[in-house]
């Protein structure tokens, strides 16, 4: 239910989203926040909403959430501009009307009164997505600033000018109600984080951008540079098609989930899979290759009246999944079972939704030949799914081509595939309703014609892309 904030003031936000996630973000902000004036830029969604900030912070499809300070057309730097000219363009484009900055400060202060209390829950999560960190130093005026290069799993390279990791202890402890403004007479402390991409990055130094902005904000607004523990981090995105300035509203990305102990598939993608499946109250949702259970946990957080079943063949994955289930306090409606997706110990037409992220890529690859196993796995998924149930699969582009073939051509290779598997669990493929095990298949099967294609979407999984497919089972 949409909960409009007491102050009923309209706030303009923007958020970042992984490649392919924009439409999920647009749907989510529309549905949960009654958002309007939605604008989609590459990898970002801008929107306005009057909904309480706590609800905005619950968004599941976004990476980071910002209070929008300024959105402008791209920076236009004259060819061979001298440093003075560059600084003047930066000042006029990025700073513009100072009134905008003071009103953004007021909005931020008001929001801080109500957002701070949840921050602590996320503590300790921020290192999860950082694969690699290089540190180098640079002398700027009298301040020794540290520039860290963070290579993130999904978001490409990001440069942050910082004296230390961004800590917001002040915010964490601040439970001031929105009307009160305890900081108003104290100058706001800030630092600047600049992300520059495209051709601009060849002509512009992000240190220069930060320096120009920093000097103006200190001189004109009396804000105080604080690299170690600032109250706000002004984030500047400079791209060839837009320039955006904002203040992050959470210290850690919203994509870091406080209810997951061991992460598997990226949480936003797992959430998107559950969203696509259109789960309803009373549904039984199956992930036949559940890994650490990310998709089921994301689905369970959203659908409190549904039940969940995860299968996997790997004991270590199942152990982590059971820790995750306990950590998220979902033990009463989420169950795990050691079983193969090629021979599921489930009656036919017994589940309402099947969601599955098949192994592929470096991180989640497997020794099993997935291409050979896919017909068996798909036949099992089709068997256990009830009519009108949905099947949502995440596959590599290669496996997606094989899927397409399987769904359009008669399956003759089942015996061969089973032999390639060499595992006990593929020797019996259930083919009929209520007969989980009918012995080795030797005859060609018809195509899996009951699965009607609904949609295919391409998403970034970091270093590789995945394809999300949705099918509905139309008949037995
Ligand atoms: C891509 S991972 C799933 C990751 C999962 N979505 C997560 O977030 O942790 C694929 C999983 O399939 C499991 N697996 C491989 N072959 C299997 C089979 N025949 N039956 C069931 N699980 C299998 C692997 O052990 C692995 O945990």
Secondary structure blueprint with pairings:
Layout (H helix, E strand, L loop, with lengths): L10 E6 L5 H12 L2 E6 L2 E6 L3 H4 L8 E8 L10 H13 L2 H18 L14 E11 L2 E10 L4 E6 L6 H5 L15 E8 L3 H4 L2 H16 L2 E2 L6 E7 L4 E6 L18 H11 L6 E4 L6 H9 L4 E6 L2 H13 L6 E5 L12 E7 L12 H15 E11 L1 H12 L5 H8 L29 E10 L4 E9 L3
Parallel strand pairs: 8-9, 8-10, 12-13, 12-15, 13-14, 15-16
Antiparallel strand pairs: 1-3, 1-4, 2-3, 4-11, 5-6, 6-7, 10-11, 16-18, 17-18
The structure holds S-adenosylmethionine.
S-adenosylmethionine binds next to helix 9 and strand 13.
In brief:
This protein has helices spanning 22-33, 53-56, 83-95, 98-115, 169-173, 200-203, 206-221, 267-277, 294-302, 315-327, 370-384, 397-408, 414-421; strands spanning 11-16, 36-41, 44-49, 65-72, 130-140, 143-152, 157-162, 189-196, 224-225, 232-238, 243-248, 284-287, 307-312, 334-338, 351-357, 385-395, 451-460, 465-473.
């Amino acid at each position: 239910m949409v909960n409009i904030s007491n102050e009923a003031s309209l706030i303009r936000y923007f958020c970042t989203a992984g490649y392919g996630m924009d439409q999920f973000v647009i749907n989510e902000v529309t549905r949960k926040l009654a958002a309007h004036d939605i604008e989609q830029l590459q990898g970002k969604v801008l929107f306005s909403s009057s909904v309480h900030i706590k609800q905005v912070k619950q968004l599941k499809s976004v990476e980071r959430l910002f209070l929008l300070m300024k959105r402008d057309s791209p920076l236009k730097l004259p060819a061979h501009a001298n440093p003075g000219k560059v600084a003047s363009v930066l000042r006029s484009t990025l700073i513009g009307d100072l009134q905008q900055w003071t009103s953004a400060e007021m909005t931020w202060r008001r929001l801080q009164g109500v957002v701070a209390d949840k921050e602590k829950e996320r503590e300790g999560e921020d290192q999860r997505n950082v694969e690699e960190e290089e540190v180098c130093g640079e002398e700027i005026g009298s301040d020794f600033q540290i520039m860290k290069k963070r290579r993130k799993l999904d978001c490409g390279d990001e440069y942050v000018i910082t004296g230390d990791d961004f800590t917001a202890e002040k915010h964490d402890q601040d439970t001031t109600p929105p009307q009160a403004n305890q900081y108003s007479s104290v100058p706001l402390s800030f630092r600047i984080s600049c992300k520059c991409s495209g051709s601009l990055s060849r002509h512009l130094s992000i240190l220069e951008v930060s320096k120009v902005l920093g000097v103006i904000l200190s001189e004109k607004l009396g804000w105080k540079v604080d690299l170690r523990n600032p109250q706000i981090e002004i984030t500047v995105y400079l791209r060839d098609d837009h320039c955006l300035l904002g203040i992050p509203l959470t210290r850690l990305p919203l994509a870091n989930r406080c209810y997951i102990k061991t992460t598997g598939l990226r949480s936003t993608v797992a959430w998107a899979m559950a969203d696509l499946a259109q789960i309803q109250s009373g549904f039984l949702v199956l992930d036949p290759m559940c890994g650490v259970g990310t998709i089921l946990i994301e689905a369970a957080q959203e659908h409190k009246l549904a039940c969940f079943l995860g299968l996997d063949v790997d004991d270590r994955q199942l152990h982590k999944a059971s820790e995750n289930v306990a950590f998220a306090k979902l033990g009463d409606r989420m169950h795990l079972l050691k079983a193969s997706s090629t021979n599921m110990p489930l009656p036919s037409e017994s589940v309402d939704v099947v969601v599955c992220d098949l192994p592929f890529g470096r991180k989640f690859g497997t020794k099993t030949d997935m291409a050979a196993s896919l017909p068996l796995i798909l036949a099992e998924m089709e068997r256990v799914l009830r009519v009108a149930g949905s099947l949502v699969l995440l596959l590599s582009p290669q496996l997606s081509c094989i899927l397409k073939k399987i769904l359009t051509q008669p399956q003759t290779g089942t015996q061969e595939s089973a032999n390639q598997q060499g595992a006990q669990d593929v020797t019996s493929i259930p083919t009929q309703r209520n007969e989980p095990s009918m012995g080795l298949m030797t005859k060609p099967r018809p195509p899996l014609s009951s699965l009607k294609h609904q949609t295919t979407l391409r998403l970034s999984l970091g270093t590789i892309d995945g394809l999300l497919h949705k099918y509905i089972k139309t008949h037995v």
